Amino acid sequence: MKSRKMLILYAFLLVAVIVAMRMLWTASHKKIPVRDYEAIRQEGVLRIRTEYSPQGYYIAGDTIEGFQYELSRAIAEISGLDVQIQLEMSLPESFRALRNNACDVIAQNIPVTSELKEIYLFTDPITMSKQVLVQRTAEANNGQEPLRNQLDLARKTVYVPKDSPALLRLKHLEHEMADTIYIIEDAAYSSEQLAIRVAKGEIEYAVCDQQIALTLQNQLPEIDIDTDISFTQLQAWVVRKNSPILLDSLNSWFSQIRKSGRFNKIYRRYYTAN
């Protein structure tokens, strides 16, 4: 009798485990609904995620500034949508949010690569730039000449912001030179702040987007930015692979912003060295 009761108990526990495992599997494989332009239009809200920086979204005194913020505001005026800005410094986190419908667009100058194009859709190019090495000038570095050959980065320590697009290029460069670059991903500093640390002599090398570096050079005459790390790349915003109508809408809105001359005004404000 006792063994019969134990058998029934084991059977009950086995069924409970199977049911629990089935529920977990279903939850983990739950299909995320498609959120394209029509769903966004019906809700009236477009969620745009960018970074907190002068190129993204930035609070200066009592005003909000930023290249991506101003483009987003222009899109809100044209589309009639309520554009909600989300801030996130981690690009992988932004990609995760995009996949999970927590946001609809990643508004950063993201290099258009074949790897990313397999997973996401890119808008028409918004900017063009390349990655450059930020180092001190000879005058600011006791007469030591800046590096001009990428191969000379072997066994050097280079700082980049955490999850920077430059990280992939530095990894490829390591492979090309068959040597090691000591890459430090700094979660505490943006590329602008790392450039300031180079200027102060706190670190030797950092990698920065050329457009950003050009705007910094007038403020930081100690830095040299004439050594390229990558080729010139197209940069754009990103949407989900299953949001092609949203992509078409964004491209149409950008076209209108360009034709009106507003895009050039915004671009010059943030990317033309004064």
What would you say about this model in short?
This protein is an alpha/beta fold and 274 residues long.
Provide a descriptive summary of the structure in words.
It is built from ten helices and 13 strands. The protein has two domains: 37-128 and 235-271, 3-Layer(aba) Sandwich (D-Maltodextrin-Binding Protein, domain 2); 131-228, D-Maltodextrin-Binding Protein, domain 2, CATH 3.40.190.10. The protein has helices at residues 2-28, 37-43, 67-79, 91-99, 114-117, 166-177, 191-200, 210-217, 244-259, 262-271; strands at 45-50, 58-60, 63-65, 82-87, 105-111, 120-122, 127-129, 131-136, 157-161, 182-186, 205-209, 223-228, 233-240. Helices cover 42% and strands 24% of the residues. The strands form three sheets. Strands 1, 4, 5, 6, 7 and 13 form a six-stranded mixed beta sheet that branches. The chain is α/β, with parallel strands linked by helices. Helix 6 links the parallel strand 9 (157-161) and strand 10. The relative contact order is 0.16. Helix 3 (67-79) packs across helix 9 (244-259) and helix 3 packs antiparallel against helix 10. The mean pLDDT is 89.
